[in-house]
Amino acid sequence: MITPQDVASSDGITDLRLSRDGSRVVYTSGPLYKTGNNRTSALWLAETTIENSARKITTGDSHDYAPSFHPKASQIFFLSDRHEVGGAIQLYTLSFDATSFTEANRITHSRYPVLSYSISPDGNFVAFTLKSSSSEQNDKEPISVWRENLGFDALHFIDLRDSSKT
Q1: Does the domain at residues 4-165 carry the CATH identifier 2.120.10.30?
Q2: Radius of gyration, alpha carbons of the chain
Q3: Which domain of life is it from (predicted)?
């Protein structure tokens, strides 16, 4: 018999992404429901032609999610609060040969959370949006909002060819 506790404590798979050549898949796995104060999830990587090849590449102690393959390099980009669990989400990278003990490379260093990102098709740039400080201030005002206020600061770019930034 399945209990409500079984459902609440079960893990789910989200954010499936195939590599450009289809040889690998990266995905997020974590509790379907938040346990404790902060959401947690881990990234997994598998070879699509090798059965049971899935391996955990992040610990799952923080909220690692939204993975994406770099189009030309053997890197995986993802969002995480790993620098401060429950803190501002930042953009990170890991190599394909990473294990859950490998330290991720932090790409962004903002006090505001990264909301979304996209890597250019040539792999030279990453674009991302940040939640703005003005939207945080507006969230504290006692007003009625009839539609979602996305509150983006601006579109930001990082040149991935500049090794001082990656």
Answers
A1: yes
A2: 17
A3: Eukaryota
